[in-house]
Amino acid sequence: MTLSAAYKAVIFDLDGTLLDTLTDIATSMNHALNGLGLPGHEPEAYKLFVGEGSYKLAERALPEDRRDPETISFCEASFLAFYEKHWRDATQPYHGIPELVTRLHGSQIRMGVLSNKPDDFVHRCVDAFFLRDTFDMVRGAAPGMPKKPNPSTLTTMLERMALSVRQVVFVGDTGIDMRTGRSAGAFVVGVTWGFRDEDELYRDGAEALIHQPRELLRYLGMS
Questions:
Q1: How many CA within 13 A on the CB side of residue 172?
Q2: Does any domain span residue 171?
Q3: Do residues 57 and 109 both lie within one domain?
Q4: Is residue 179 part of a domain?
Q5: Which of 77, 118, 158, 174 is the most exposed place for a label (fewest CB within 10 A)?
Q6: pTM
Q7: Full pLDDT tens readout for the chain, 223 residues
Q8: Which domain of life is it from (predicted)?
Q9: CA 190, CA 113: separation in Å to the nearest integer?
Q10: Angle formed at CA 96 by CA 83 and CA 25, multiple of 5 degrees
């Protein structure tokens, strides 16, 4: 499938799509778990824990018998406090992402970022690894803003960017992302270098999969 020239913008997920954040997330949550006298997890396990915000991350990382709201909130706060200082220790853009973003920006394809990560961290990550004017709009989790897969924040972003959803490609690495984009009415592309497998991406609505960042150009008629 090839997209038409009517597509004017790409909205990206952050973790697992633009940036490989897994090691720093795992290290920070394991620190929080150890502080509760609990064992941590291998980094690969966190691929199934992330995607729905830091509270859900803490809930999934905790043993089932420790998932009371008070413990989850304490674990989340401990994670965020450590992550605040260590979020950039190992985090890097995935191979090929800087080149893709530069190509899109130079071709006047508008871009945005939508993440369930706390909003301040999302802005810091974007500012650290990309030029400030690269993305038209960047949004993370904030009070009063529904998290993905609720499509309302994505819809609001597009309204503020003066874009029709039919002009937008939504790119992510999890079923949460696929459901978000489909619910909003965007064309949805799943990436296979992130945190979830192809079966989940297709099951939750991916209309195309890409295995390397540059493959997105083909769907935008730019290859």
A1: 31
A2: yes
A3: no
A4: yes
A5: 77
A6: 0.95
A7: 444 557 899 999 999 999 999 999 999 999 999 999 999 999 999 999 999 999 999 999 999 999 999 999 999 999 999 999 999 999 999 999 999 999 999 999 999 999 999 999 999 999 999 998 999 999 999 999 999 999 999 999 999 999 999 999 999 999 999 999 999 999 999 999 999 999 999 999 999 999 999 999 999 988 7
A8: Bacteria
A9: 15
A10: 15
Pair of tokens at residue 41: 């997890």
Domain count, the chain: 2
Q: Extract the tokens encoding 125.
A: 């990550």
Place of tokens 């993440």: 115
98 DSSP 8-state letter: H
Query: Is residue 213 reached through a cis peptide bond, with omega within 30 degrees of 0 on the bond before it?
Result: no
Q: Are 112 and 15 in a shared domain?
A: yes
The two beta strands, 92-93 and 19-20, are: antiparallel
Read off the DSSP letter of residue 146.
P
Query: Residue 153: inside a domain, yes or no?
Result: yes
CA distance 143 to 131: 27
* Closest alpha carbon to 23 in 40, 46, 39: 46
